[in-house]
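REQUEST FORM: STRUCTURE PREDICTION
Request ID: SP-0412
Submitted by: Lab K.M.
Chain count: 1
Length (residues): 302
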Amino acid sequence: MSKPHHILHMITPAKNLSPFDVNMAVDAGWTTVVPYTQIEASEVTGLVQDAIFSRGRRGVRCTGMFIGGRDIDKAMDMLQLAQSAMVPPFEISVFADPSGAFTTAAVLVAAVERQLQKVHDTGLAGQRVLVFGGTGPVGTTASVIAARAGAKVSIVGHKGDEHPRQVVSACKERYNVDVEPVDGSSDTLKEQLLVDADVVFGTAKSGIQVLSADNLNAATKLKVVGDLNAVLPLGIEGVGLTDDGRVIEGLNGAVGIGALTVGNVKYQIQQALLKDMIAAEKTQYLDFQYAFDRARDYVAQH
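STATUS: Completed
RESULT:
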């Protein structure tokens, strides 16, 4: 009997599934990829159980599910629902990565942590971290990951602190982390925040500069800056696209991590996780924490 095909069922609450994710899955070795769009949480159990009972014990090990979308909380809910729907020994691995937020945030935090260790002989624990664009999926995920690693994280609001307060409340309730909302709606307020900052994450939308060189002059304690904006103007002035620990001029030795540096490793980590699903002897449930652990290992070896 021939070996069963590796089938990946890719679900999303959105209108379309990301072509990026489809390409990644096929390149990782999934021979058949099937998209399901506009999926509601109430449909996850039925989809999972259709998948697990249709291939037998041998085929179920060659079956997986990917959860996309844009909402990280919905993705985590769907991941939990999928796990609850399993009926051992009929179980499949499930990987959640909405908008690539989990793998991107994992790599950003891991890369910054690596530079803290390399340049300053310290980790994230106790570091004051400012997250600009922290109310979006990548920024929120990065905030949770850094807080879990012991950092003192503040999500900066560009129109006051109302939206960050909502996000912070959800982070505490869902992920049991303490994250602070702060107002960064003016240059003066940004610079006041930067005085005590050890780390800055730039996770705002493409083409939006959140910090200028003048703003950064206030950051006398700054150690590492990571910027994900790859579209001009870059999100944080002075951080180049391919920077990987390059010293930023005028910042007392602070180093930068650029968008393409993060993106190149994100590609490797997402593909690694998709391959993990195929190779694993036991069922895998892959979320942002799993992605962070993998990213940590990767950046430590490269």
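NOTES: The chain has a mean pLDDT of 96.
Reviewed by: T.R.
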